[in-house]
Amino acid sequence: MAITITTGNFKGGVGKTTNAVMISYILSKHNKKTLLVDLDPQANATDLLFTTMEAIYDIKPDFEETLETALISGNLQKALVHVKDNLDLLPSYQDLQGYEKYLNETFADDYTQDTYLAKLLSPLKEKYDYIILDVPPQLNKFTDSALVASDFVIIILQTQERSLTGAETYAEHLINLKDDYKLGLDLLGVLPVLQQNGNNLDLDVLDDAIDSFGKANMFKQRIRQMARLKRFDRTGITDRSKDINDIRVMSVYENVVNEIKERITKFNE
């Protein structure tokens, strides 16, 4: 049965999508069958993985239905894209912008709307070890649908004041949603990203985050600013390269994934 994780923050541009993709990618390299669900109509996660498929694996992305069509039909299977060994994608497309309208016009109450995605993902949980959901940085039906479908949340925290505010608001919403719907949903941790070496402001924000969330809820691994991550959007994820910059990125995310596994083990204990 898949462990389902949403990555989020109510502040945009904090590296949420990049981290969702990299976590999924490394999990697949650990021989864990992984599904990335791109619930953001901007489709940045989809673009990155499609670029990787074409540039690195020489595979043309192909799917029978868009995610929006599959959501409406009630069967997500036809929207699945096989990216590489152990990694599949439910890709976003421009028509996904109509998902909220579909929910509002089809279901009368918030609970039925917010649990709809969870019901559709349920059959897929038997096929995967992990399902990672990437959502927009806003409070909307995409976010609530993902959270209701999830076992855990990783809050992505850029070491910047507005990102910290977005992270704190996200955590408050998580608690409220958990209480309202009696969810078995937990905060897996806060992952600091885009940290600048030696920047006092970044360190101050980290200290404030520790005060807000507690040291135990902060990931030990921190993602410092790495130009190679930006390059992946153009080149695809060049994990098979012997370039020291690629090796460094992969090593950092190996540590992130290992810490994710450790944290899940502690929750299960």
UniProtKB/TrEMBL annotation:
Source organism of the structure: Secundilactobacillus malefermentans
Matching SUPFAM superfamilies: P-loop containing nucleoside triphosphate hydrolases (SSF52540)
InterPro entries named among the record's database cross-references: AAA_dom (IPR025669), DNA_Partitioning_ATPase (IPR050678), P-loop_NTPase (IPR027417)
Occurrences of domain AAA (ranges): 4-181
Protein's name in the database: AAA domain-containing protein
